[in-house]
């Protein structure tokens, strides 16, 4: 078993390399993804090894990147598009919603759009305006798109390969503040035996409260669970991993045991993923709940300037405060 310690960013790079090796129809395209290797170096070295016909530096035109990828996907290629920063995706939003999401349905199943749209998302890196968005609810709300987010190097390595191999269009959200965090990655495990792409997973068992998160907030919830254990509370942490379709079976099973649930995400609370998850838990687990499902989120404001972003982002203290409030009912 070839297990290595990799950063999440390097795990993505290695997974993309495997995808390029395994299928000659896989192409990577985006702004500065080739010679530079991407602003976060996720595609570092890939153009050198696979050539500029498969790792393509595009013009600075997100709608052009996605529109071109739609044509490639229809012709049998598997394009992997990098949106350089989350806040740059909006010029491509029309293409994603009007074409990428609807082509399979519109063609009565005759056309597949096997493409991946990689989006570094979330805050916490001290970036300037338009570089720290959390647009996941826009895409999760759109029928025809699948939306996933990795939270660990192992998941990053496996999930990016699974997404590329899928025949469905997938928005692949990468927690940019976690790119440099390290973990063990099994490089030899067969993809056919990997944990399913569209499945949630318990990443820490507990009995008192269920914490639900995805992407960058999984680490925050794990840290909160460690801190709570010092006070004798056992928090169960679930990494949702897939935002559309949501996989809530493991969530319901957990909440029926703990009786309490807290949903954590960086995006604003208004009409966010937390609201949908809270509604579904209430519908399915009403008689098991000891308190309302609570949310810990970003605020309903535009993302703030970098110097005050830590006041905006959910942190360990805000998560633990929600846990305390759930015991107050």
- Please count the helical segments: 12
Specify Rg, calculated over alpha carbons: 19 Å
Encode the helix/strand succession as letters. EHEHEHEHHEHEHEEEEHEEHEHEHH
Decide which structural class fits the backbone: alpha/beta
How many strand elements?
14
* Biggest sheet record: 7 strands, mixed
Q: Helix amount, in percent?
A: 25-40%
Beta-strand residue percentage = 15-25%
Q: What is the strand arrangement across the widest sheet?
A: 3-2-4-5-7-6-12
Overall geometric form: globular
Can you give the mean pLDDT?
A: 97
Q: Give the uncertain stretches in residue-range form.
A: none
N-end to C-end Cα span: 49 Å
Tell me about this structure.
- The structure is a single chain.
- The model has no long low-confidence stretch (mean pLDDT 97).
- Helix 8 (217-229) links the parallel strand 10 and strand 11.
- The protein has a seven-stranded mixed β-sheet, sandwiched between helices. A five-stranded mixed β-sheet has the order 9-11-10-13-14, with helices on both faces.
- With 329 residues, the chain is an alpha/beta fold.
- The chain is built from twelve helices and 14 strands.
- It has helices spanning 8-22, 46-50, 62-74, 93-100, 103-106, 136-140, 153-165, 217-229, 249-258, 273-285, 309-312, 316-326, and strands at 3-7, 26-30, 55-57, 78-82, 116-121, 146-149, 170-175, 182-186, 201-204, 209-213, 235-239, 242-244, 261-268, 294-298.
């Amino acid at each position: 078993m070839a297990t290595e310690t990799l950063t999440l960013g390097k795990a993505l790079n290695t997974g993309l390399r495997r995808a390029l090796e395994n299928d000659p129809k896989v192409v990577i395209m985006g702004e500065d993804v080739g010679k530079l290797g991407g602003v976060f170096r996720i595609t570092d070295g890939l153009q050198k090894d696979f050539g500029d016909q498969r790792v393509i530096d595009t013009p600075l035109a997100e709608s052009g990147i996605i529109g071109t990828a739609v044509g490639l996907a229809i012709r049998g290629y598997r394009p992997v598009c990098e949106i350089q920063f989350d806040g740059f995706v909006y010029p491509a939003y029309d293409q994603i919603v009007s074409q990428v999401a609807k082509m399979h349905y519109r063609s009565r199943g005759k056309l597949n759009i096997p493409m991946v749209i990689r989006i570094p998302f979330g805050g916490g890196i001290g970036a300037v305006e338009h570089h720290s968005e959390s647009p996941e609810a826009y895409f999760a709300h759109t029928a025809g798109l699948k939306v996933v987010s990795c939270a660990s190097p192992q998941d990053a390595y496996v999930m990016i390969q699974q997404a590329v191999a899928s025949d469905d269009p997938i928005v692949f959200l990468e927690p940019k503040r976690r790119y440099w965090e390290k973990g063990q990655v099994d490089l030899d495990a067969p993809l056919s035996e990997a944990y399913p792409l569209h499945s949630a997973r318990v990443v820490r068992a507990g009995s008192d409260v269920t914490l639900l998160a995805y992407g960058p907030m999984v680490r925050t919830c794990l840290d909160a669970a460690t801190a709570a254990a010092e006070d004798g509370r056992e928090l169960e942490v679930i990494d949702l991993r897939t935002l559309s379709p949501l996989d809530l079976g493991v969530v319901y099973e957990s909440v029926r045991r703990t009786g309490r649930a807290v949903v954590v995400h960086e995006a604003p609370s208004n009409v966010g993923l937390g609201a949908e998850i809270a509604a579904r838990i209430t519908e399915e687990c009403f008689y098991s709940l000891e308190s309302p499902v609570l949310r810990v989120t970003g605020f309903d404001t535009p993302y703030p300037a970098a110097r005050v972003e830590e006041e905006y982002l959910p942190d360990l203290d805000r998560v633990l405060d929600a846990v305390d409030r759930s015991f107050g009912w």
